[in-house]
Amino acid sequence: MTDQFQDTGLQGKRSGRIHDLEERTARFGEAIIQFAKRIPVTPVTEPLIGQLVRAGTSVGANYCEVDHAGSKKEFRYRISVCKRESRESKHWLRMIAAALPTIADEARSHWREAKELNLVFGARHRSRRARSPDTDETENGAP
């Protein structure tokens, strides 16, 4: 199913690196959906599954918005949301692994990807902040 959504090679203004991260976050969301479908639904796992699917699919949805950020402030905000959602995905994966030790290995695999994404978003947020200080302060006349 993923193949039908793959890029046809047209990247427009996007660099290959940004496009790759967009694809990576989409694949992460798809993997979370497939993983969630295999989790047995019990009173314990039901809320965990819902939370994981919301957080895991939100990473890619929010990353899509990064490309369309109208300002540096919005860019930082969108990246911070991606970072927060990937961190939340790690939490829900850990809880699912605790609830169902039989699927802990697969949960750990997804947890590692969520951790890597979290580190990438953190680095992008820090590098953008280091390269461009807040324009809000300078625009308002602050030193």
Biggest beta-sheet profile: none
Structural class: mainly alpha
- Alpha-carbon distance between the two ends: 53 Å
Total number of helical segments? 5
Number of strands: 0
* CATH homology superfamily: 23S rRNA-intervening sequence
**CATH architecture title:** Up-down Bundle
Which ranges are low-confidence, i.e. pLDDT below 50, for 5 or more consecutive residues?
1-18, 133-143
Can you offer a commentary on this structure?
The chain is mostly helical. It has a single domain (16-132), classed as de novo design (two linked rop proteins), CATH 1.20.1440.60. Helices cover 74% and strands 0% of the residues. It has helices at 16-38, 45-66, 72-99, 104-131, 135-139. The chain is elongated and about 45 Å long.
In short:
It is built from five helices and no strands. By secondary structure, it is an all-alpha fold. The chain has one domain: Up-down Bundle (de novo design (two linked rop proteins)), CATH 1.20.1440.60.
Helix and strand arrangement:
Blueprint: H1 16-38, H2 45-66, H3 72-99, H4 104-131, H5 135-139
Helix pairs in contact: 1-2, 1-4, 2-3, 3-4
Key terms for this structure?
143 residues; mainly alpha; 5 helices; disordered N terminus; disordered C terminus
